[in-house]
Amino acid sequence: MDYKASDEIQDLQYFGEFGGVNPSISDSSTYTFLSAKTMFDTFEGNTEGCYLYSRHSSPSNLYLGEALAQLEGTESANVYASGMGAISAVILQLCNAGDHIVCSRTIYGGTYALLKNFLKKFNITTSFVDITDLDKVKEAINPNTKMIYCEAVSNPLLEVADIPQLSILSKSHDLPLVVDNTFSPLSISATKLGADIVVHSLTKFINGTSDCVAGAVCASSEFCLSLKDVNDGAGMLLGSTLDSLRAASILKNMRTLHIRIKKHSENAQYLADQFQKDGLTVVYPGLEGHSGHETMTKQYNPEFGYGGLLTLDVGSLDMANALMELMQREKLGYLAVSLGFYKTLFSAPGTSTSSEIPMEEQEELGLSQGLIRFSIGLDNDIDKTYHAMKSCMQRLGIVETSNSLV
User: Fold this and answer.
1) Integer Cα distance of 325 and 6 in angstroms
2) pTM for the full model?
3) Sheet containing 125-129: which strands, arranged edge to edge?
4) pLDDT tens-digit profile of 256-269?
5) Phi, psi (rounded to 5 degrees) for 323
6) Which end of the chain offers a freer environment for a tag, N or C, measured as fewer CB atoms within 10 Å?
7) Three-state SS for 100?
8) Member of which family (predicted)?
């Protein structure tokens, strides 16, 4: 693709008040005015470059939002105190009581719980469908549908959404296509592929240091401004405000995102290839046998690879727990949720990040209790890591020394 988001991010320059290479942090919750009229105009959203109160906006949040808009190629971006803060703001801005959403069947557990359970309070319903089956997506649309929602690469089964085709379908019904691109920043340029609104959990790859929680909405200037409207903006009124100190920290970490994503993907591809040779049940979009490999290949940015997430199914929850505990003892990573850290993180999603999904639905989706989700780290010697992981599997009888499954 011609669009080079990594270059756009690098080309952004901000200078601190005293010539610093990083922009100064706005450490204020409220801001002063020289005239009462300017305060009124700012409150009404009619003044550029002025700040009133940090729940509305702050310079630090604005800087981060500009970088995120460059990342996704959108006109604007708003930042929030969590990924769920961003997601809930988008949904409640677009939907009213009685409305309907078409959503991917495999999705982050928190998003699933919001759509399936919490929004019932407002009579907002959701149809969960196989997002890779366009006919099923089309069949689920009804007169009350207000959006199509999916993850570019789904959590935790790593299904790949065909964003260009979903965009064509959504536009034919005059619906916004909302894409959560948390698993694949830089690898997939969702807006360029046809997404109308892109959401991120900045907590993950974009920040990359597992030291904060944050989210973002990347969209048109009109939509981003509507979220901040003092009278009916969901982002404004729900109060999910990102702290300026955290915004400044995330902005600095974004400068290395292109380097980190390349290494995450390179390491994940290597491990997936080796695990597949060992006969393990491994799922990774970079493997030719993956159901979404062709779709991913036609829409990804090759220099950033197929992403840093893979899954292994070791047959049972007991075996999954034993393997994760052993790998942690061997200092191969951490038994922890989340992703995008410099060390490998692993968890059993059926009993953690997807536990909000009822067991019977997990079984229908093919979410095995023995499934382990790996967020592959930035290991310098990934072959050494592979052999250490394989040794753990051999000790537990998951693989034999002869490389065949037990």
Assistant:
1) 36
2) 0.92
3) 76-80, 215-219, 197-201, 177-180, 145-151, 100-104, 125-129
4) 999 999 999 999 99
5) -65, -45
6) C
7) strand
8) Belongs to the trans-sulfuration enzymes family.
